[in-house]
Amino acid sequence: MNMIFKIELMKLKYLLKSRLMLIIYAVLHVWLGVLFIDYSIFSTKSLLSFSVAGLITASIYSYNYITDVDEDKINPMKSPLIRGELTVRELTVFSFLLFIISIIVSVMTSFRVFIFIIFIIIISFIYSYPLLQGLKYRRFKDVPFLKTVTISTIWGMVFLIPFFATNTKVTFGAILFVIFLIIQTFIDSTISDIRDISEDSKQQIKTIPILLKDKTNGFLFSLNTISILPILYGIYHDIIPIYFSVFLIQILIQYYTIYYIKYTKSVNHVYTKIRPFGLILLLTSLVYLRYFS
User: Per residue in 76-118, pLDDT tens?
Assistant: First the structure.
């Protein structure tokens, strides 16, 4: 019995590791919210906010291994389910377990966080589950543009968890920064679709790069330019913290990324070199300006 428990625990650790970058991404969004409201990152509310964001992200994206099984068959390296390392039952149990823990932690955090987590779960279910059987698109995530808009909006709203946890008013400045995050996440998600364009074409999935084709880079360039506006407006009117001006670095990196993809027709270098460098530069600059300047 003890051996079985250890094996299951190892598999759960493996599952969490497979979604580690997404969990870190969620925690970073919450950290930005904590910085925005100038709250202690070591307070109970902050730590609970970090936990609930990581847990619900792990739960949702783990269950996606099951809902995305048909797409992942083309590229087995993406999914532990296709590779046979985890079964549907194990993924379901682990995902449900993480969901229950995230609900418990959200209740411990605040009622507003609990409502927000329930909202995210409902949207994620509607988004991923094949509710449109018999229609042109089986799932809402298969509807052109809706996939990217939904993902981007949810990730942008994760930034607000510390506001809900501490009962802090969501200011206009916070909304402006959420808009910035949504646009930037939209760009990131579209770049990810560029990387998967061959697989998506075989599955007849109408992603933005497939629909826009050669116009994709121009579209992303325009979006990146638009994302400058909420940051500059917020800083100019002193409703976004001045140290958040470092996110102009993110915009410059996106410009470089878009042009790099356009002229090299390669995306792999974006994830192995450009993104890691940009993230380290951005976080280092933000920490320095917030805590040491």
Answer: 556 777 777 777 788 888 888 889 999 999 999 999 999 999 9
pLDDT in tens, 194-211: 877 777 777 677 788 888
Question: Rg of the Cα trace of the chain?
Answer: 20
Is the whole model's pTM more than 0.90, yes or no? no
4-13: Cβ within 8 A, 24+ apart:
8/90, 11/85, 11/86, 11/90, 11/94, 12/94, 12/97
Query: Could you please report the per-residue DSSP string of the chain?
Result: -HHHHHHHHHHHHHHHHHTHHHHHHHHHHHHHHHHHTT--TTSHHHHHHHHHHHHHHHHHHHHHHHHTHHHHTSSGGG-TTTTTSS-HHHHHHHHHHHHHHHHHHHHHH-HHHHHHHHHHHHHHHHHHS---TTSS-SSGGGSTTHHHHHHHHHHHHHTTHHHHHTT----HHHHHHHHHHHHHHHHHHHHHHHHTHHHHHHTT---HHHHHGGGHHHHHHHHHHHTHHHHHHHHHTT-S-GGGGGHHHHHHHHHHHHHHHHHH---HHIIIIIHHHHHHHHHHHHHHHHHT-
| Nearest in space to 15 (alpha carbons), one of 46, 59, 54 | 59
Tokens 């966080």 sit on residue: 113
